[in-house]
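1st attempt posting a full record on here, be nice pls
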Amino acid sequence: MMALITRELKLSLRHGADTAAALVFFVIAATLFPFTVGPEPAMLARLAAGVVWVCALLAALLPLDRLFGADFEDGTLDLLLLSGLPAYAVAFAKAVVHWLTTGLPLLIIAGPLALMLRLPSDKIPLLLLTLVPGTMILSLLGTLAAAITLGARRAAVLMPLVTLPLMVPALIFGAAAVSSPHPAAPLYMLGAMLCAALPLAPLGAGAGLRAAAE
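the predicted structure (as tokens):
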């Protein structure tokens, strides 16, 4: 698995434009919100956490079409499934690389963007704390959606339709944790969702990979 993760990281660095495009989209989308809702600091502060969460979710969807697509087209996926590594382990390795190359950079950029959106400085650590499990959940569910839609017609259209409804609970609790005076309960819910996604998403993605390979 470590060899597969190293290989995927090297490929991600070689195709760094995909990661850069996701980060640029994240910054541009968050920057556009003040033009639509107005520059009032109080209004921006109320919306900042939700804006960052939604933009991070949409930006992380951009690299998902290449997660398994290139390996499926050139036959590498068949070799990975025959390598002795279980299909769910292949999917988990892909999810780890997606988080390292997309989720982690989004997490780093989220702080300055939230500050630009007038989120109080004492709320920024809490926002970043919610985004840690949130981006991990997104990578796991995105990997599941990418595997399920692999080889399907209009896979690029189906993938967001599968991923976005699954991410709605994480969006709700993530934004609620920042705005609520009692953030413990939403944080516990995010942790519970991550604990559920860690075993279930790779298992479902592995089943999807085996079905696509057959």
